[in-house]
């Protein structure tokens, strides 16, 4: 079984690409030796809060340490105790790499009292070489995973509806005082995979737009997203829907990220390409 | 109306009208503070909150808001009685200050012991100092604020409408002012429009007595003077601020106005938090 992963992104209208405060990353790991190699894939999508401190550094750190890296500590298992330990390690690293002196008393207090914050959707695909491939995901906040088979929605994780998007989602905070709350509110989901399935992970503006389309009975959205072939097509799609007059069909002007993952049959080895 | 997010492209505007009349020297309820001290303290906390929200990247703040504070009553800088900007230091005399400039220019940073044992003292920036004296020229305050709001709206026609919050403890003493009544000055102020609606004029009346205060009432029935007058000129609370109120556990009925009466310090904090919280976009 092969995995094809593509990440599309578009910053808020009027903002430079460098101000995109989402982040996404994915990777594939082959584990084992002596003919017992197993393959698993992992991806993560995070959305830094607009009014957080230094969101760009926080989202970059979270995605960097969530996916497999050579010569690095193993990435966290997707269960509460391991994720709590990982959150704590991330907070320690954040503090270690922060400025020793701040530019103003406001910045000093922002760092200490508010810190940074991002929603997180992390997912692992396992059993890719076996008879029962599956996905397992963790979520804090309103970045949403959609599992689609044959043009129909199989699962939404977390199970949000169009009315569940607000300005105070759960997320991963840099404040150690939030560690317990983050762990308590983290959700875990899973599902079985089949050849031809799509997984879409979308930050809140696009997830909201998708869920409203589904609520209207419009499942053509899956064909549209599955057919996106170039970043410029994605940018046009997002910007067109930001300008739609009908409020129910309009996409909120926010940073938008869509990670699309397609499950494919094994390909001849000369066609394989590592992610 | 009132659906625009605040962004650097379309920033917001918040104007505070701060009563600095002589009666603000009275003790505020059971506290050790005068109303002038308490109002200045709460205002500094709200300004700090706005600055904290704007502090995105290290070393710089985002221009989400222009902030004005107009004191009415005694004028410590110009002298005499009337209306003037309540900012001091390098911001003195500037009517509307961009948030990044506000962040960089408190008149003082004071240290207070931390409630957590062993923790370093809390450093608190101060932009507004407590002052009291003279009468209560509220009409003039609305007139002065209205002129600056008009200019601001002309420059930001597609922004979330300006929010004007009047903090007072007294009866207006200059009604009518330049031939117009308090109601007429309020109508002139709220007659200005951005594409997202007219400015929001909120009023909160402080009381030296403890208890019996109301926040965001839907009627002025039963309120003593000047409650009905201030209720009448207060804008209806828009849905987003009703949602703010429900998030903080404050009950708001249909038809609620941006008005508080006989408020203590806790109520003033709630009032300002609910009345100034607008979603930020970028």
Mean pLDDT of chain B: 94
Q: Fraction of residues of chain B in helices?
A: 25-40%
Rg of chain A, Å, rounded: 19 Å
Mean pLDDT across every amino acid position of chain A: 91
Compute the number of helices of chain B. Answer: 7
CATH homologous superfamily placement of chain A: PPM-type phosphatase domain
Low-confidence stretches of chain B: none
Q: Could you give the count of β-strands of chain B?
A: 10
Distance between the termini of chain B: 20 Å
Top-tier CATH class of chain A:
Alpha Beta
Q: Return Rg of chain B in Å.
A: 18 Å
Runs of chain A in which pLDDT lies below 50 for 5 or more consecutive residues are: 271-275
Query: How many helices of chain A in DSSP terms?
Result: 7
Tell me the structural class of chain B: alpha/beta
Q: What fold name goes in the CATH topology slot of chain A?
A: Phosphatase 2c, domain 1
* Morphology call of chain A: globular
The structural domain count of chain A equals 1
Order of helices and strands of chain B: EHEEEHEEHEHEEHHEH
**End-to-end C-alpha gap of chain A:** 14 Å
Please supply descriptive tags for the structure shown above.
heterodimer, A: 275 residues, alpha+beta, Phosphatase 2c, domain 1, five-stranded antiparallel beta sheet, 7 helices, 11 strands, 28% helix, B: 282 residues, alpha/beta, two-stranded antiparallel ribbon
């Amino acid at each position: 079984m092969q995995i094809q992963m593509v990440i599309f992104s578009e910053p808020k209208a009027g903002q430079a690409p460098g101000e995109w405060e989402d982040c996404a990353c994915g990777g594939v790991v082959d584990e084992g030796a002596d003919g017992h190699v197993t393959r698993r894939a992992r991806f993560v999508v995070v959305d830094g809060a607009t009014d957080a401190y230094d969101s760009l550094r926080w989202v970059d750190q979270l995605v960097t340490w969530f996916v497999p890296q050579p010569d690095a500590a193993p990435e966290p298992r997707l269960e509460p105790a391991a994720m709590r330990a990982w959150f704590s390690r991330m907070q320690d690293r954040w503090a270690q790499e922060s400025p020793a002196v701040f530019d103003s008393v406001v910045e000093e207090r922002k760092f200490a009292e508010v810190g940074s914050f991002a929603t997180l959707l992390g997912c692992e695909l396992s059993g890719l070489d076996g008879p029962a491939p599956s996905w397992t995901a963790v979520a804090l906040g309103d970045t949403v995973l959609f599992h689609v088979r044959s043009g129909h929605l199989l699962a939404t994780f977390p199970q949000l509806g169009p009315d569940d998007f607000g300005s105070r989602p759960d997320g991963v905070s840099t404040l150690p005082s939030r560690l317990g709350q983050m762990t308590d509110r983290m959700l875990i989901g899973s599902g079985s995979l089949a050849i031809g399935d799509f997984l879409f992970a979308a930050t809140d503006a696009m997830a909201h737009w998708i869920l409203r389309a589904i609520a209207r009975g419009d499942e053509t959205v899956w064909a549209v997203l599955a057919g996106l072939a170039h970043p410029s097509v994605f940018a046009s799609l997002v910007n067109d829907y930001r300008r739609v007059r009908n409020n129910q069909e309009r996409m909120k002007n926010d940073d938008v990220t869509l990670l699309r993952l397609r499950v494919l049959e094994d390909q001849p080895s000369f066609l394989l390409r590592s992610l | 109306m009132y659906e625009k997010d605040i962004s650097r492209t379309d920033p917001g505007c918040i104007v505070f009208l701060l009563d600095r009349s002589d009666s603000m020297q009275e003790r505020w309820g059971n506290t050790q503070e005068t109303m002038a001290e308490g109002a200045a303290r709460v205002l500094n906390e709200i300004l700090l909150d706005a600055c904290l929200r704007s502090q995105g990247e290290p070393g710089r703040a985002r221009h989400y808001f222009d902030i004005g504070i107009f004191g009415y009553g005694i004028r410590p800088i110009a002298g005499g009685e009337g209306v003037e900007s309540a900012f001091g230091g390098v911001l003195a005399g500037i009517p509307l200050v961009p948030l990044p400039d506000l962040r960089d220019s408190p008149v003082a940073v004071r240290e207070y012991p931390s409630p957590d044992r062993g923790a370093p003292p809390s450093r608190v920036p101060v932009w507004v100092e407590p002052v009291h004296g003279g009468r209560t020229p509220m009409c003039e305050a609305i007139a002065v604020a209205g002129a600056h709001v008009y200019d601001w709206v002309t420059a930001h026609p597609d922004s979330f409408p300006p929010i004007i919050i009047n903090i007072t403890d007294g009866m207006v003493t200059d009604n009518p002012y330049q031939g117009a009544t308090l109601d007429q000055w309020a109508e002139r102020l709220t007659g200005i429009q951005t594409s997202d609606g007219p400015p929001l004029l909120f009023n909160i009346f402080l009381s030296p007595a403890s208890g019996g205060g109301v926040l965001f009432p839907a009627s002025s029935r039963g309120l003593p003077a000047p409650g009905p007058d201030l209720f009448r000129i207060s804008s209806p609370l828009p849905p987003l601020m009703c949602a703010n109120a429900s998030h903080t556990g404050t009950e708001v009925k249909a038809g609620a106005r941006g008005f508080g009466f006989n408020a203590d310090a806790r109520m003033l904090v709630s009032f300002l938090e609910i009345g100034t919280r607008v979603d930020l976009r970028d």
